[in-house]
Specification:
single chain, 3 helices, 45% helix
């Protein structure tokens, strides 16, 4: 390989070129995720999915299940057995000491863990507002766009001085 060919390849795939490509790749990936969650936000109230139906949820391995719920403007729900929505839980008998419900509900996030002495294992449900991933994935593209706008504005102002 001759020296000019090495120089061209080095300019195309070298460390400097990768420094420019990685942020742009991250920008595209995060923008796609943000748009995907925005589509889920629009989809949830229109479709009103039933998380108890196996066809309207996504199985992640054998333990986790996930879906989208239309409550509270759209939520992502991750659970193991059946999603717990805050209703009364009763497991087979009139003895309420056999059921233990623990959890928290703060800042658009909801978690419940239900255990019973009559059933093996523990059921749990985690709900999070769909706005959390939308905002999280929009931060970098927004900063990139703001930086590009400021750079254009700064170049335009220095051209007239």
């Amino acid at each position: 390989m001759s020296m000019p060919e090495q120089t061209r390849l080095g300019a195309r795939w070298g460390p400097r070129a990768m420094k420019r490509r990685i942020p742009k790749a991250c920008l595209w990936v995060l923008t796609a995720f943000c748009l995907g969650f925005l589509i889920l936000y629009v989809y949830a109230p229109i479709a009103n999915p039933d998380l108890n139906s196996p066809s309207e949820r996504l199985a992640i391995g054998t333990t986790f299940k996930a879906g989208v719920d239309s409550r509270f403007g759209g939520e992502i729900v991750i659970f193991n057995n059946t999603p717990y929505g805050g209703s009364i839980t009763r497991v087979g008998t009139n003895d309420f000491r056999t059921v233990a419900v623990a959890g928290w509900n703060r800042y658009g996030m909801y978690f419940r863990s239900i255990s019973s002495s009559l059933q093996k294992g523990r059921s749990w449900t985690f709900r999070i507002s769909i706005w959390y991933p939308i905002v999280l994935f929009a931060i970098y593209p927004a900063l990139f766009f703001l930086r590009a706008c400021l750079r254009i504005h700064w170049v335009d102002r220095t051209a007239y001085v």
